């Protein structure tokens, strides 16, 4: 049993839960009413709604109440039903710094008389929905909230949720992810496919239960994992059998690498008698395969680069013809339209990186983890070359203390960070122009002065995006400077923004470059 305190001040009623764990004897079975405050138990309100609703109506009319202020979403959802039909009530306030829930959004729409909502933050699609019902929203947070689930699936408005046919799920799901999925299912009318990256039984069963709860049928759940364990396959078959009536079908999508690797299992024992000949063929073929693979890698990346260059060229022409007018949701002005244009190829594009006298000249992408772009290219297709990507902990709109960018060292084909090893050459380091890296975002053009280059056995101590204080940051700066193969005579302070490039090199080691942000005017 919870106790709800209602305080009257001017034209506003304030609602909050009683903090004290002790319950006064006079509150055990009824409610207390005084001039300063009203105290009700939630059980009392539920059992006596026909009594309290007329009481609240008279209270509002006598005191000309037009505003209801609630401690949080939960309390607002519970109490609003007792004030429906009171025409004086126009404004609702939520005090807690939390995101408005979809359940509260629905309650406000059914409330009819509400015209204003004041809250900490609200998703864009709910803002759009309330606006359609003539409810004006005021938020105390400058940036509208977009949850990880909505971000990953590029859902920014109510219309997109309504018509979305395909979503991706990343396991393990958080409680927020689960709530967002249920909100999505409550609104959507066209869902057909749910993509799963790994088999996570708890998440899979939650999704199926949610689909049934909202009466979805003809749904394909595509699992992108190379399932090997017989017990897992039997488990998935049993799920398909149980959900056949609801037409919820789980499909396994094996990777090309897995299928190619397991082709050999189909070879008969008689064929193995010629293993000597096959072994020789494999040795000879391996060299040819490596050559062909590297050549293919170069060709595939070259084709993507042609599309990139064409997109940039068109954006440059458009920039000359039209003034820069558009502002993104972040409120930052787009200064580099060519980067913004590259999001038409992949919405994950957040920047563009160039390192002089190397082949590093690529758009930079940002995913929700540091795994996806290890094996996917700019088109989000499986590709052993991967792509150049920013650490998922970094922000593109407000630079962290340390922005980290990764890429594969494709040494033989030279793509991605395959030519970054040139920075270790003294001839490369002696050219001052080479020591300035260009890394731009859509919102800023930036040059970065290199102050440390080194190789080190695999470690994560340099992969920090933020620091506790200036002393902590200076300890980090001194550590990475002490590792440098050359003293670049650069003064780096705790106020400097840092750019870190990281790639693998021989014997499970890492090649690392650190640079500081130069003044934007330079």
Can you characterise this structure?
- The chain has helices at 42-47, 49-63, 73-80, 102-111, 124-132, 148-152, 158-163, 175-187, 201-213, 230-242, 256-261, 275-321, 337-342, 426-429, 470-483; strands spanning 3-9, 12-17, 32-33, 37-41, 67-70, 91-94, 116-119, 136-139, 166-169, 193-196, 219-223, 248-252, 349-354, 361-366, 389-390, 402-406, 436-441, 447-457, 498-505, 509-517.
- By secondary structure, it is an alpha/beta fold.
- The strands form three sheets. An eight-stranded mixed beta sheet has the order 3-4-1-2-5-6-7-8. An eight-stranded mixed β-barrel has the order 13-14-15-16-19-20-18-17.
- It starts with a strand and ends in a 5-residue tail after the last strand.
Beta strands, count: 20
- Work out the radius of gyration: 30 Å
Q: How many helix segments?
A: 15
Distance between the termini: 64 Å
Strand content: 15-25%
What's the overall average pLDDT, rounded?
85
| Major sheet: arrangement of strands | 3-4-1-2-5-6-7-8
The largest pleated sheet is described as: 8 strands, mixed
Helix-strand category: alpha/beta
Query: What is the share of helical residues?
Result: 25-40%
Q: Assign an overall shape.
A: globular
Low-confidence stretches: 23-30, 266-270
Short recap of the structure:
Helix content is 34%, strand content 20%. The chain has 522 residues and is an alpha/beta fold.
Q: What is this structure's SSE topology?
A:
Layout lengths: L2 E7 L2 E6 L14 E2 L3 E5 H6 L1 H15 L3 E4 L2 H8 L10 E4 L7 H10 L4 E4 L4 H9 L3 E4 L8 H5 L5 H6 L2 E4 L5 H13 L5 E4 L4 H13 L5 E5 L6 H13 L5 E5 L3 H6 L13 H47 L15 H6 L6 E6 L6 E6 L22 E2 L11 E5 L19 H4 L6 E6 L5 E11 L12 H14 L14 E8 L3 E9 L5
Parallel strand pairs: 2-5, 5-6, 6-7, 7-8, 9-10, 10-11, 11-12, 14-15, 16-19
Antiparallel strand pairs: 1-2, 1-4, 3-4, 13-14, 13-17, 15-16, 17-18, 18-20, 19-20
């Amino acid at each position: 049993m919870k106790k709800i305190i209602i305080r009257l001040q001017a034209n506003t009623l304030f609602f909050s839960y009683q903090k004290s764990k002790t319950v006064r004897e006079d509150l055990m079975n009824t409610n207390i009413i005084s001039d300063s405050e009203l105290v009700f138990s939630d059980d009392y309100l539920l059992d006596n709604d026909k009594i309290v609703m007329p009481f609240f109506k008279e209270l509002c009319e006598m005191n000309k109440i037009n505003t209801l202020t609630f401690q949080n979403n939960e309390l607002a959802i519970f109490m609003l039903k007792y004030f429906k039909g009171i025409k004086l009530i126009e404004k609702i306030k939520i005090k807690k710094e939390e995101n408005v829930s979809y359940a509260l959004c629905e309650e406000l729409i059914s409330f009819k008389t509400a015209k204003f909502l004041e809250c900490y933050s609200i998703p864009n699609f709910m803002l759009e929905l309330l606006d359609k019902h003539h409810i004006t929203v005021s938020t105390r947070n400058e940036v509208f909230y977009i949850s990880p689930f909505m971000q990953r699936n590029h859902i920014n408005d109510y219309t997109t949720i309504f018509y979305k046919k395909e979503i991706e799920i990343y396991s393990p799901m958080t409680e927020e992810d689960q709530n967002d999925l249920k909100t999505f299912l409550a609104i959507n009318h066209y869902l057909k496919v749910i993509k799963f990256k790994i088999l996570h039984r708890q998440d899979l069963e939650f999704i199926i239960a949610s689909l049934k709860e909202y009466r979805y049928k003809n749904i394909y759940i595509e699992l992108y994992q190379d399932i090997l364990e017989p017990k897992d396959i039997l488990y998935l078959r049993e799920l398909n059998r149980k959900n056949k009536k609801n037409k919820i079908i789980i499909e396994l999508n094996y990777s090309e690498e897995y299928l190619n690797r397991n082709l050999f299992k189909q070879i008969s024992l008689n064929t193995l008698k010629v293993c000597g000949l096959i072994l020789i063929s494999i040795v000879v073929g391996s060299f040819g395969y490596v050559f062909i693979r590297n050549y293919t890698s170069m060709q595939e990346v070259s084709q993507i680069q042609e599309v990139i260059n064409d997109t940039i060229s068109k954006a440059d022409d458009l920039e000359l013809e039209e003034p820069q007018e558009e502002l993104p949701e972040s409120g930052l002005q787009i200064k580099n339209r060519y980067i913004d244009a590259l999001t038409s190829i992949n919405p994950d594009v957040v920047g563009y990186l160039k390192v002089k006298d190397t082949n590093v000249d690529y758009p930079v992408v940002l995913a929700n983890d540091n795994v996806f772009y290890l094996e996917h290219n700019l088109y989000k297709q499986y590709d052993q070359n991967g792509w150049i990507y920013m650490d998922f902990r970094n922000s593109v709109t407000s630079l962290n203390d340390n922005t980290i960018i990764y890429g594969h060292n494709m040494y033989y084909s030279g793509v991605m960070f395959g030519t970054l090893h040139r920075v270790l050459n003294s001839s490369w380091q002696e050219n001052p122009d080479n020591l300035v890296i260009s890394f731009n975002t859509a919102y800023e053009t930036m040059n970065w002065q290199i102050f440390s280059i080194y190789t080190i056995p695999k470690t994560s101590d340099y992969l920090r995006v933020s620091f506790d204080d200036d002393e902590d940051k200076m300890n980090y700066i001194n550590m990475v400077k002490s590792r440098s193969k050359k003293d670049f005579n650069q003064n780096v302070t705790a106020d400097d923004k840092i750019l870190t490039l990281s790639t693998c090199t021989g014997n499970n080691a890492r090649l690392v470059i650190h640079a500081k942000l130069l003044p934007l005017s330079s």
